[in-house]
Design brief:
The protein is α/β, with parallel strands linked by helices. The chain has 14 helices and 13 strands. It is 42% helix and 16% strand. The strands form three sheets. It has a seven-stranded mixed beta sheet with strand order 2-8-7-6-5-3-4, sandwiched between helices. β5, α7 and β6 form a beta-alpha-beta unit. α2 packs parallel to α11 and α3 packs across α10.
Amino acid sequence: MREINLKSDTTTKPTDEMRKAMFEAEVGDDIYNDDPTVKKLQKLAAEVTGMEDALFFPSGTMANLAAVMSHTRHGEEVILDDSNHMHLNEGAGIISVAGLSPRFIKAENGIMTPDDIRDAFRTPNIGYPKTSLVIVENTHNAGGGTVYPIERLKEIHQITKEKNIKLHMDGARVFNAAAYLNVSVKEITQHVDSVMFCVSKGLSAPIGSMLCGTKELIAEAIRKRKILGGGLRQVGVIAAAGIVAINEMPGRLKEDHDNARILAEAISKNPCISIKLDTVQTNIVYFELKDKLGADEFAEILEKNYGVRCNVISKTKIRMLTNRHISKEDVLFAADSINSILK
């Protein structure tokens, strides 16, 4: 039986070029800033995002947390939407580790508006925490892979500048956002003060995420990374794959988006499924099961009988992601399999 793994784009394997680069990587102790391959990756990440500097992290969760800790002080408040990945899927680190108070906004499909941001700022009061940061997620995972319009980011950034606070982007899939908008990454990230992006998702590197921002921010983030256990040694063997990922992989992301759209449209007319086609902008497909069949049972049948793997989000919700290992034929087979189960 064929296997079609649609659980995540984190399941991608490194390319042969990445494996070769890892094998041949020149390395040194990164704690002493002596790893030339890491330095090369960090310079490249800063260039593609248009930022002054960049820092390599083992994970996006650690990079996001270090960024937030570097922008804020313990006890302050951050504004973010209530389905933001940092809130739902990163172990409540902004609360439990950074010691911050989240101010949640309910945003349609995860995309906050300038009015949302303005309304979230409260009248100054000694009983309220000081607001010091706004966080956006782009693309927005729980929103369905949705993308912030550049003009909206620009307006939100203008608000944060007026309030004299910072704007951080969880841009784990910002290269997907750029592919959807048909722009360079820096055309998006010029409207934020810092950005985290992953090389380990659709870009196919095995490990790693980058935090990009000002030199001042990165200097502080180095300290925060150490506190969080991210002090690294001869990490050039991993960073080498990240260089290939940034240089070679973004150009093919539209293929993933096209395949996600094909999958979504192929199941959208099934009366047992509820799906928001307008949110299928990149490589993520969410759908709800309206039948009596629960998500866990559905996923088990789909994998056991058809070899198609998916991600169970709730009792009724399923998530599927396309990536470079998934072809058009794969998503058509997956759609046929889904429709066969949910007749």
